[in-house]
Amino acid sequence: LANHALLTGAGLVPRCPWLGTNWRRLPGPGNAVGLTFDDGPDPHTTPAVLDVLAAFDARATFFCVGQKVERHPGLARRIVAAGHAAENHSHRHRLDFSLLGPRRYECELGTAQQAIEAATGERPRLFRAPAGVRNPFLDRELQRQQLQLVSWTRRGFDTVTRSPQMVLQRLLRGIAPGDILLLHDAAGARASDGRPVVLSVLPQLLAMLRSSGLSTVRLRDHIQVAS
Ligand SMILES: [Zn+2]
C-alpha cells in the first residue's frame, strides 16, 4: 500500500522519472533545443504559429489533442507537411487524466493515435500527458501503443501569463542545449494587443535562439522509442 501511495504521488510530479522512461531533455551532444506546442490544433492560433516557424525555418513538435484533430484534420496535415511532427496528447485532454484506469487509457491514447494518423498519414511516436501528470497504468498502455513519454525542462506558462516578456524570460533564462520548451497553440492567454501571447513570444524566442547558436529540432528525431 505504501509503495502504491508512493507511485501515485510520483505520478503527480510531472517530471518524475520513477515510472519508466520519461524524456525530459534531448539526449547527447549538439546545439539543439526542442520546441513543443500543446493542446492544438486550433484554427485561430496554429496557422499563425506555423507562419512564424516557417519565417525562421524552425522545426517544432505539436502535441495534438485527438478530438481537435478530428475537427481540424487539415490543420494537422499542415503541421506535418511543413516539416514538424504531430504527436499524441490524448484524445479528449481530460482533467482527471491521472486518475484513469487501464481501459480509459487504452481509449484516450488509441483513439488519438488513430485520429492523428488518419489526418497526417504519420503515426505518433511520442506522448505527453495532459497537465503532465501520469499514473502507473499509463506505462502499460504506452508500451502497447509503442509511445514514448515526454515532458519538458522549461515552460512559459503562456496559458495564464499575459506578459510576453515574462513568458520569454521563463523560457530563455539559463537555456542550454537539450532543453525542451513548452508552449501552447490553443487556449493561450491574450497579450495587451488581444492576440494569444504565444504569437508575441515566438518571433522573439526564435530570434534569441538563433543568436545564441541554438537550433530547433523535432523531438522524434532525437528521442528513441523504447521497444
Ligand atoms: Zn495539455
Give a verbal description of the structure:
With 227 residues, this protein is α/β, with parallel strands linked by helices. The chain has helices spanning 2-11, 46-55, 66-71, 73-81, 102-120, 136-144, 164-172, 197-211; strands at residues 22-23, 32-38, 61-64, 85-88, 126-127, 148-150, 154-155, 180-184, 215-217. The strands form 2 sheets. Strands 2, 3, 4, 7, 8 and 9 form a 6-stranded parallel beta sheet that branches. Strand 2 (32-38), helix 2 (46-55) and strand 3 (61-64) form a beta-alpha-beta unit. Helix 4 crosses helix 5 and helix 7 packs parallel to helix 8 (197-211). The chain is globular, with a radius of gyration of 17 Å. Zinc ion is lined by residues 38-39, 89, 93, 130.
Low-confidence stretches: 5-9
Output the number of helix runs: 8
The description of the largest β-sheet is: 6 strands, parallel
Number of strands: 9
Distance between the termini: 30 Å
Structural class: alpha/beta
Morphology: globular
Ions, cofactors and other ligands present here are: zinc ion
Entry summary:
The protein is α/β, with parallel strands linked by helices and 227 residues long.
Topology:
Elements: H1 2-11, E1 22-23, E2 32-38, H2 46-55, E3 61-64, H3 66-71, H4 73-81, E4 85-88, H5 102-120, E5 126-127, H6 136-144, E6 148-150, E7 154-155, H7 164-172, E8 180-184, H8 197-211, E9 215-217
Parallel strand pairs: 1-6, 2-3, 2-8, 2-9, 3-4, 5-6, 7-8
Helix pairs in contact: 2-8, 4-5, 5-6, 7-8
